[in-house]
Design a protein that fits this description.
The structure is a homotetramer. Chain A is of the alpha+beta class. Chain A has 5 helices and 7 strands; from the N terminus they run αββαβαββαβαβ. Chain A has a single domain, classed as Cytidine Deaminase, domain 2 (3-Layer(aba) Sandwich). The first copy, chain A, is 30% helix and 25% strand. In chain A, helix 3 links the parallel strand 3 and strand 4.
């Protein structure tokens, strides 16, 4: 087995395992995702649904949060595994969140439970013409301009 | 009937009517909301669910979008009407979005279909210690600092 | 001028006008959008940002909410106009929300302020392999299963 | 030092450390959060902003995702630490997501960088009258009803 397929298989297995920890009481549809950081580490997560549907966080975004929290800023491969007979496809929101940390050539592997129906598509094919927000100054400078950014509160 | 109760009733009726236009195929739970602008105009909206649950927009936020799109920046009363026997209560996300345009004394009326079980709570009671993002400079100045904010794109 | 270009121009003008009502104090980046319903009506909206960035609603979604609230379930064309020199491109989240009501052939017109740099891309090109949530039963049936869907509350 | 304050301090330290890994190039406002699971384990995360502001995930939600992904379904304490001189207060969306896994008595500790200005409020005080979605059947049964929930796709 090649090194490439070895990494891919480990990523799909991590996504499949993360699926089992998903919190999906409202849809009954569990999804797991795993991302490969540019430094070789893997991070995974499942979907976390909410009573207010709009606050649901998909598996892909959950995995991205785990990676970012560990200092990752570059993702080089993604795997998504979902319940049901058909291989999943990431929603538009997740494609956008992945694009914050991954490039158009990044492979996105998708499969059904157990890794069945494995398929690969590049992120650039899933989300062409990606939206980016670019100001005239670098992020660090932009941040410093907020001299006193803070959360304040007004009592009830 | 007092002028106050007249306005309240009109707001609740608008929310109840908006409920019927909700797009809620995933939850089967339709909600309508209406907001009263400080200039006396009313705006309403229903929940707009999405196949990707996390992209669902609640009725309250839908109504706020309608108001803001018409130039409103100050909301002075809110009504929410939902399917089901129990009067609804806004989710935390909607409370936060309402707080962007309304103050702690703003009344939030809730009722079941047809206006049954009408109840009122102040926004400040629903969302005390509200989160605000405040930079050291006024929004207009902050905006001008983004000399060249734009959406760019990278081809696929 | 053909009827097609006439409709297109009206849609772009509506999006451009909606841009001016955007609430974008955090990014300073105003966007307006307009959607053409299958029955010929037009609906528009601007982005509605929030102190909690994650609660921001893009212009495209704001316009969709307006249409859905008026009973629309089928969108046949979209226009998006944004501040800045470069024509915008919808984010992944908005593409997904548009796909809830529009098909892959739906034209998405984008332009800079004043309609400059007008460009068209099909929704199917912007969001190929779209995610859909399909249960084994039709939505109406699924809804009826929630015998008693409701918002409940626990006092503080 | 009591065992309680020891746990609290560890939670605040974890949140403060997670703050340093936040991805906040758009706001320049880094936040870290940590949650204590009912089994004693701690999980943390930072905010993960996105070019499309509406896809931003707050620190609190990032930490919840980490906990849920590890099998946690019950959170017994929360800590949030943010940049800036004033202690933060969770946004409404995060309060709602916390309420999915925590009860009204759950303490939410907030502090500025380094743990300064430590303060505690109960979740039930931050989000009274919490929204819940309750169907007539238990989640497991609801899930099984979706005989064939799946993501499908239509080619571009």
């Amino acid at each position: 087995m090649s090194r490439l397929s070895s990494v891919r298989d480990a990523l799909v297995r991590a996504a499949d395992a993360a699926r089992l920890a998903a919190h999906a009481p409202y849809s009954g549809y569990r999804v797991g995702a795993a991302v490969l950081a540019s430094d070789g580490r893997m991070f995974s997560g499942g979907n976390v649904e909410n009573a207010s549907f709009g606050l649901t966080i998909c598996a892909e975004r959950s995995a991205v949060c785990a990676a970012v929290g560990a200092g990752v800023r570059r993702i080089s491969a993604v795997a998504v595994v979902a319940d049901g007979p058909a291989p999943p496809t990431p929603c538009g929101a997740c494609r956008q969140v992945l694009a914050e940390f991954a490039g158009p050539a990044t492979p996105v592997w998708t499969a059904s439970a157990g890794g069945r129906g494995l398929r690969c598509r590049r992120l650039g094919r899933l989300l062409p013409f990606v939206f980016r927000f670019i100001s005239a100054s670098p992020p660090a400078a932009a941040a410093s301009r907020h001299v006193c950014p803070r959360r304040t509160q007004s009592g009830s």
